[in-house]
Structure formats: C-alpha cells, structure tokens
Design brief:
The chain has 7 helices and 16 strands. The strands form 2 sheets. Strands 6, 7, 8, 9, 10, 11, 12, 13, 14, 15 and 16 form an 11-stranded parallel sheet that branches. The chain is an alpha/beta fold and 358 residues long. The protein has 2 domains: 172 residues, no CATH class; 123 residues, no CATH class. It comes from Wickerhamomyces ciferrii (strain ATCC 14091 / BCRC 22168 / CBS 111 / JCM 3599 / NBRC 0793 / NRRL Y-1031 F-60-10).
C-alpha cells in the first residue's frame, strides 16, 4: 500500500507567503487573473503585492481582480505617481486604443512609473516590476517605435519583466538594444520590421514575420539553431563579416544585400544551401576610392535550386562565382568590373532566358 500524505487544503497553506509571492510574480497577467478567480483566498496577497492599471477597468478580464486603477485618473496626475513606493508588481494594460493623444498619454504614464526608480543597485524588495500589455494599436508609428524601444531597454534590468504588444503589424527602426527576450511575448501580428544595430535575433519572438530589414549587422549577431530568417530579408548596410549559415536560410525566398559606399573589404557567401531562394540581389555603391569600397564579392559553393532571378550591381567590384548552382535561374543581370568562374566547377544555368552583363 502506498502512503498518502494529507494535501494542504489551500494554496496559501502549502507555501510560505514569500514563496507564494515569487510564484505569482512569474505569472503572465491573464494567468494571474485566472488564479485569483480560482483561489479567492489569495486576494489579500494580490492586494498587497499587485497593482493593475488599465484604460478599461470594466473589462470582463478584471471581473475577479480587486482594486483595478483607472488609467485616465492616473494620467491626470502622472507627475506624482504613488506606485514608486509600492512593492511587488505593477501591471499596466491598454485596450483598443484608437486616439493618438491617449496613446501618448498612456505611454508617458508608463514612463513616469518607470522613471521613479530603476532596478540597478536596488535591494530585491524595492525593485520595480512592470508588466506591460498594449492591445489594439492604431496610432502614429514613431510613437510606437520609441515606446517599444524604451520598453525593451527596460527588460535589461528587469524593470519590465513582461512586454506584450500583440496587435502591431509593422515596426520601422526597432532598436536592438540589450534586451531580454525572456521578458517579451511574441509579436503575434508583426509581419514587417526594420531593426537597427542587430546583435540578437530571437526569431521565436517574431512568429509571423514575413519581411525583415536588418541594419548594421556584424559578426556579434547571436542566432540560435532554432532561429530562422523569414521569407524576405534585406541586409541594408552590408554584413560586416557576419557569416550566414545554411540553417538560418531555410525559409528565405528573397535575399537582398545592399552595401553603401563606406563599407569596405570583401563580401563572401560560402557553403550555403538556399532550398527556397527565388530572388538574390547584391548592390554596392562603389566609388572606387581605395579602402572605402568592397573590391571582391565571392559566391562559393552556393546551392539555390529554386533561384529564378539574380542581380549583381557593383560596376567597380570583381565578382567571383565558384560552384554556384542555380539550375532554375531564368534571369541574370551582372554589372561588375570582372567576372571570374572556376573551370573545375562549371557554372551552368540550363533554364536561363534573359542575360544582361555590363
């Protein structure tokens, strides 16, 4: 017979109060609300350790949540935010925003809360813990970009421990600051993004991303084995020694590499398999001034069975094709100073229909 130990009658009997609080701190807001509804006995702990601020306090989401604060009242008094002295978690949620002025005010309210103190050098009991959700975004893009960049930056020291912006479809000039992906919910609706100064690309944060423009990519870019670039990728300022790997490229259909005139050295794509690539474009504005130019572009051991269109536009650059396999290629445009191929690995395009070389 197996001995059955008596189970605690309730959540709060099972664990000390501080352990309970730490568990609740880790929950997403919607899970926290469901827990409060399921276990009314933890309401006193919730009141002591949590504050909820929203522009829609009558939303059914909060039917069991005590002491929900109306954001519009706080906005009018954002210069004197009492939450700076509270402990625990501050949940800030904005619903279905369509008015520009309110969006900006709401974001300024979050700034006011977070600016009261940052977590660096603070004792653990005094740390600010912000969980931010913004639904139904429909306002000026620059306001959105600046806000998301600021919120991402606040995840670094865990001032923001949860960020959820589920409805945004496009972001331009997203700064890849030193943020913590573990604190960010996936951008579920984001289809297009332009990211500056890229050091980390956790692709699971962007599950529906179709078009990505990357600026200032270098060899410090962190990509995990599960990370994949989306269907359309543009490296707008070259790649600065960043090395593509085949496992990053399995989804890419359109690849564009644009190098301005101040990018220098050698650009090399090597040992790559692009199973779905259809369009490849490489452009370099080469003024021919010494080191301020890419002198060589080398495509070595490239397999792109579905590639149909290839354009290379850099009249003062030498192009090298070595074992460049693209059996479905139909159109090629080459503007280069020279073109070199390896006779031991002949480059053939059996389906080529249109060819232009200057």
């Amino acid at each position: 017979m197996i001995d059955m130990y008596p189970l605690p009658a309730s959540f709060e009997e099972a664990l000390p109060i501080e352990i309970q609080a730490l568990i609740l701190y880790c929950l997403k807001p919607e899970d926290l609300y469901r827990l409060v509804e399921a276990f009314p006995s933890i309401v006193p702990l919730f009141i002591d350790r949590f504050k909820v601020i929203t522009n829609d306090p009558t939303n059914p989401r909060y039917r069991s949540v005590p002491n929900v604060i109306d954001a519009s009242k706080m906005i009018r008094h954002s210069n004197d935010v009492p939450l700076s002295k509270s402990r625990g978690v501050t949940i800030v949620e904005c619903h279905d925003v369509t008015e520009d002025y309110f969006c900006e005010d709401f974001i300024h309210l979050i700034y006011a809360i977070s600016s009261k103190k940052r977590n660096k050098n603070l004792p653990s009991d005094d740390k600010l813990n912000l969980k931010i959700t913004i639904h139904g975004i429909n306002y000026d893009e620059s306001c959105l970009e600046n806000s998301i960049n600021r919120f991402l930056d606040l995840t670094n020291d865990k001032t923001v421990t949860y960020l959820n912006v589920p409805d945004v479809e496009y972001i331009a000039d997203l700064e890849d600051t030193d943020w913590d992906p573990d604190c960010v919910e996936p951008f579920k609706s984001l289809e297009r993004a332009n990211i500056n100064t890229v050091y980390d690309f956790p692709s699971h944060i962007f599950p529906k991303l179709e078009c990505l423009e990357l600026n200032l990519v270098d060899d410090d870019l962190v990509m995990r084995n599960e990370d994949k670039f989306p269907e359309s990728v543009s490296f707008n300022y070259g790649m600065n020694k960043f090395t593509l790997k085949s496992w990053m490229c399995s989804k890419i259909q359109n690849l564009r590499i644009r190098c301005p005139e101040n990018v220098r050295g050698v650009l090399e794509l090597k040992d790559l398999n692009f199973p779905n690539l259809k369009v490849l474009e490489i452009y370099h504005k080469n003024d021919g001034h010494g080191d301020r130019a890419i002198h060589n572009v080398s495509l070595t051991n490239i397999n792109a069975p579905q590639l149909q269109w290839f354009q290379f536009d850099s009249p003062l650059t030498d192009l090298i094709l070595d074992n460049f396999q693209a059996n479905d290629l139909e159109e090629i445009t080459l503007h280069s100073r020279t073109l070199t191929t390896n006779p031991e690995t002949p480059t053939r395009f059996p389906k080529l229909k249109k060819y232009n070389m200057n």
